[in-house]
Request: fold
Amino acid sequence: MPNFRSSWDANWTASYGGFDNPDSSARRNYIPVAFIPHQNPFYCALPYNDVTHGQFKPEAPLVIPWFKQAYIGPGQSVCQHHWIAIRKGNRTCYAQWEDCGPFRTDHFQYVFQNERPKPNLNRGAGLDVSPAVRDYLGLAPTDVTDWQFVEVRDVPPGPWRSYGENNHFVIARRQTEQRLAERSFGASKK
Reply:
């Protein structure tokens, strides 16, 4: 099912750079062949949205472990872009939380506590993953994984660090390149 918008971005397809076609013939090296994504192609959805109608949900500051550290302003999600490690068997993939679902946006008891996912049309799935995550882990349409939140500093090298204006590693690399260019330009003027 194509997703043209996310819970946090009404223009997600445009922000991403196009339709993230899940068909394997339309993909190479974890990204669509038709364009280079503007957002991290390693993304996922969990069934909780910390913001509703531009305001934080009342439980958000109480249940989100990183709420105080990540808070940047009223109604600005502290969940969006957070990193998650997703494991199937002995293989682990890292992804950014970019949408809410499947089917729910209010199940903090599952996302942040120990409750099981609620029954839904995806056989009780508690996580949706992008085609890149699916391909990296070799997932079937409905498969069993486990996942956990991780801090940026704990995300190891891998293809999940390569693309996206929302990707902490791409942002850091650009800032480093910009500082080096500025130093080089300043040195050449002397």
Q: What stands out?
A: The chain has a mean pLDDT of 90. Helices lie at 12-16, 60-63, 67-70, 108-111, 131-137, 168-188. The first strand starts at residue 27 and ends at 28.
